[in-house]
Amino acid sequence: MSETFALSECLPADLPEIVELQEDLWHGGEKNLAYHHWKYRDNPYLDGRYSVLARDSSGRVAGMIGVFGSPWECDGARFVLPCVTDTIIVPEHRNSPLFHRMLDEAARRLRAAEHPWLLDFGDQGSIPAMLLRGWKMVGPWALSVLTRTGDPARPAWSAEPVRTGARSGVPISVAPGDDQTVAAMADVASRVPDDGRVRVARDLEYYSWRAANPLARYYYLVAGDEKPAGFLVAHRFVLDPDDGQTPTTIVECEADDPDVKADLIDVAHDLLPGNWILVWAHDLPGEARAVLDRWRAEVSEPTGRFALDGPLPNLMLKHTGAVPRDPVPAALDELASWDVRGVTGRAWR
């Protein structure tokens, strides 16, 4: 006989147990509570009511699936898409149906609230089972990995002098991530032409919220002098040292000109800390791809074979059963529908 689980919202009274449970996933110690508040309570797009907490028959917390809001736009119209995140199950129930029961419960609540889509940028190991339960896979797409051979530490990041882009001649500076940096990023993103694909709504509110992530250490580069011409954002886990075992991920790179974007990628690969530098390569222009080649980064392209493409990034998408209404697109299950710049799940962790 299968275990019976009680599924509920994640209420304020549950927070001590949630923080303890999530330590195995977040590893943030004292920062875990602040992270939970940032991602769910302080999320400007969707409150935490759709997250699911599971208790076993004894009343003990057995698992959790988080659902947070992310902002998107298409053809000038904005909308919110819920994302699955922070999925964790205690060891004794990991081979039970609990994962799918929690996912189904989250989808049921979202359907009742007329949210038609649920996204997941999550664990590759769960993809086959999710596909069998009606999820669709959008992707995968190309991933670049540079493996460093020298010292991964960059203790003087904030004191790095201004560089001049080798291609563009534009100055590239390390930025502190303050209000001025965030405003410059929003300015550059606002000038990216709308090509009809679904993309993250990258504005001042979004960048300000993301920058407040208490478990993230962000690194910012800004190109240009009086007027910003581009920017790059990279991420490391806040408690992981430069020589730690997590990669440094370039979560976003945007510029007015492909040469400026290539220069930002070039400078980032030179200055960023870490043993590995990762960047999604799907939307990088040829000029930036040439930079990756010069750095001898390994760019893995999709092969169409699931066993080989497992490590590559992709998007999982589930229709909740609610009827899509404008401005939410009715068809989202093709990679060609998505502009995935700035979307990497690492940007939200």
Can I get a quick summary?
The chain is an alpha+beta fold. The chain is 26% helix and 27% strand.
Instruction: Please state the average pLDDT score.
Output: 91
Strand content: 25-35%
**Whole-number radius of gyration?**
20 Å
Number of strands: 16
Helix content: 25-40%
Characterize the overall form. Answer: globular
Low-confidence parts lasting 5 or more residues at pLDDT below 50?
none
The major β-sheet equals:
8 strands, mixed
What does this structure look like?
The protein is α+β, with helices and mostly antiparallel strands. Helices cover 26% and strands 27% of the residues. The chain is built from nine helices and 16 strands. The protein has helices at residues 15-26, 32-41, 98-112, 127-132, 179-190, 204-211, 258-271, 286-294, 306-309; strands spanning 6-8, 52-55, 61-74, 77-89, 117-120, 136-138, 143-147, 163-164, 171-175, 199-200, 216-224, 228-237, 248-255, 276-280, 298-300, 315-319. A hairpin with a 6-residue loop joins strand 8 and strand 9. The two termini are 37 Å apart. The relative contact order is 0.17. The model has no long low-confidence stretch (mean pLDDT 91).
